[in-house]
Amino acid sequence: MTLKETIEDFRKLPSAFVTDAMRRIGLSGWSEGVYPISRQTRRIAGHAVTIRYGSKRKDVEKPTSIYQVIREAKPGDVLVFAGRGTSCWLIGENFCHDALYQGLAGFIVDGCVRDADEISEIPLPVFCRGAAIKPWRSHLSIIGINVLVEFAGVQIRQGDIIAGDGDGLAVIPPERAEEVLVQAREIAVLEKEKEEAIKRRAPLEELLQMSAAKRTVKNH
Questions:
Q1: pLDDT band at 158 (very low <50, low <70, confident <90, very high)
Q2: CA 47 to CA 44: how far, in whole Å?
Q3: Cβ-based neighbours of 61, under 8 Å, separated by 6 or more
Q4: Do β-strands 89-91 and 112-113 pair in parallel, antiparallel, or remain unpaired?
């Protein structure tokens, strides 16, 4: 399977199935409090390009334009704005349109956005903590590009696979992606079977057995 096919498979799977699969094999890595603002495009999958923010300090600032980061990113990448949960806005509508035309997979923002109404209509997945008009440059500095970042309760490295939907975001190490997919596909089957069992009012013992099966690692 190619990397492109792997990413597309993650885009189709609910994030809950992905996190269940990760737990099966002893991985962790999911966000807290960051959700899609987009009305149309609420699923995201792609490789991470990270932008790290810190407290305002001019002598350590990286004189980096977000437009430069967007233009240097590859089609299908996800820009990760590690803003430490700031109440400031980190991106606006112009960045989103530039990313859309660059072919990026979307933005995830541990902080807020401005132009929220406009962004919600753009066919680009954008995940954030909410909307704001408080400017970030008065409070924060960009202190690293493509470095390890803390993002909404999870560590993200450059190149990690980001997969998310309305429930939140999962972060998958690319070297474990195939393993996670195998487990997630089986969990999808088990979830469908469980839905049908609930519909036919299956005995409690059967439902408990199905729940236990979700935690059992599938050999591949």
A1: very high
A2: 10
A3: 141, 142, 143
A4: parallel
The model's pLDDT over 167-217, given as tens digits with 9 standing for 90+, comes to 999 999 999 999 999 999 999 999 898 889 899 898 888 888 888 877 777
- Token digits of residue 129: 């903590």
Distance CA 72, CA 152 (A): 25
Three-state secondary structure readout of the chain? CCHHHHHHHHHHCCHHHHHHHHHHCCCCCECCCCEECCCCCCCEEEEEEEEEEEECCHHHCCCCCHHHHHHHCCCCEEEEEECCCCCCEEECHHHHHHHHHHCCCEEEECCEECCHHHHCCCCCCEEECEECCCEHHHCEEEEEECCCEEECCEEECCCCEEEEECCEEEEECHHHHHHHHHHHHHHHHHHHHHHHHHHCCCCHHHHHHHHHHHCCCCCC
Q: Does domain 28-172 have CATH number 3.40.50.1370?
A: no
- Compute the mean pLDDT over every residue in the chain, rounded to the nearest whole number: 93
Both structure tokens of 122: 């753009």
Q: Of how many residues is the chain composed?
A: 220
